[in-house]
Amino acid sequence: MAIATRGTSSNYLQRAPSPSGLAEVLDVILDKGLVIDAYVRVSVIGIEVLTIDARIVIASVDTYLRFAEAVNRLDLTQTEVAGLQELRNGGSERKTKGMIEGAKDAFTGDDDKEKEKEKSKSR
Amino acid sequence: MSSKAEDAQLTRSDAPVYVYGVVRSGAVKAPNAEGVAQRPVSTIDGDGLAALATELISQPFRVRRRDLDRHLQVLEAVFEDSTIVPCAFGTVLQSAESVKTDLLAARRDELLALLDRLEDRVQLNIKATYDEDTVLREVVESDAEIARLRGESRALGQAGHLANIRLGELVTTALTARAGADRQRIGDRLAEHADDVVADETTVPVVLKASFLVARDRLKSFDSALEALATDEAPRVMFESIGPLPPTAFAALEGA
Q1: ipTM value of the model?
Q2: What pTM does this model have?
Q3: Do A12 and B242 touch (CB under 8 A)?
């Protein structure tokens, strides 16, 4: 779990000692690390699925429309009431991230619950 | 070599073996924790090197979510007070004998050189992400064509689908160019405090996603640089730092 930093830069820097979500864990151990010659390796079921999931990308037209929407949403006159602006902002970026993580979680969903259980046990 | 580590050595030679990583022999005893497939972790010794491994009983090995965590936990436990060359997740060899010959003996020199290179070094994974509204505002204000198209697109509303795509394309191009320059500047400032960098490809709003290899005695200076960077770039870029981690991004052998 990410912890907000001490000191002044606060929200702009988050530090975590260890990866937490599935995407972060995959990022550290899946494509990284020593790779041993294929001929001595034994196949492992599930790795291929993991690799494909980790490489999901968003189609470009969708990206264009998302940025167009975001630019149109922008309030360039800074004089409006701040609270109103906050209400209008946000949303689409989080939605996109959610799509990727959601897809990654889909195939191992059950195990995540298992992990939660283990976590609470160890507390 | 402690007698405990010897006790934990693998004895069967016919079972497939999952390998977490390679250490100098005698440097660590197998962590007293559960490994992948809910099986114990042990060591397989070679000449000057040892592999941290788990003997699998069921074949084929089917990966589960918790196996990812176990792999990382074993690396982290060893890495606390020793040096390890981490293996990629899912490394399974035919037998303990194959670990000795095909890994420890066949790659001995490279592995010893890697252990030297990684000694007293940690990995920090840094991700820098744009605050989208702040950077989009920069783009609109610095590009007359985008500003004009934005006005058009807003006026057309739902009818402006093509105008929207054109606007989005221009914005994406402008953002990508901006991110390229920012990536360079941000990466350079952090690289000054690191021995090596491995950067992943990224797309906006992610500006930089990279692993830095940092000497333990330079961790403080790296972190201060990161803190200063975050302060300088606020509010347009947000930073996330994960680590210190075992140096998984720096464990590649030549020609592997």
Answers
A1: 0.83
A2: 0.78
A3: no
